[in-house]
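User: Can you help me understand a structure? I only have the sequence.
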Amino acid sequence: MNLVEEAVVLQHGDAVWDRILVDADLDGVWTSLGNYPDDALPRLVGAGSELLGVAEADLCVELGRHATQGLSQRYPGHFAAHDDVRSFLLTLDDLVHAEVVRLHPDAQPPRFWFDDGEDGSLLVHYRSHRSLCALAEGMIEGAGVVYDEPTAVHHEACQLHDAPHCSLRVTFETG
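Assistant: Let's start by predicting it. Here is the structure, written out as tokens:
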């Protein structure tokens, strides 16, 4: 959550962040070690969307991009262990979310699983009771920035449109 605060403050200033907290009826200090109510992020996104006049999905994508870049600065060792976006993404459930659950046993991180596309793409399947697939999309795009590998994400199926899970086709520009 502190990455969300950081993104908003960087782009819009402390006063806007404070207003979003008030509008979302949230308060407190946001830390990387905190475990927050499931509805906190959707409430922040809703309040931010309204205040900034942008679509919630667009705001989530932007927050996701920023979050991945922030995580790469906070946990450089995990990112350095991978040479590209694909190898990084493949560790989300096994390493990253396992660590989240270790730190917060009651956490319910999203689930990811993968299929290789015949065209070299990666089909990322996403399921979460929070349905923040736009955040996942932004985080994947942010990984492209971290690894300096232009990465495009195409939503093929979506929980928000009655699919059992989201399917995001990720294509990579190399060379």
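Now, to help you interpret it: The longest strand covers residues 151-157. The chain has a mean pLDDT of 87. Let me know which part you'd like to focus on.
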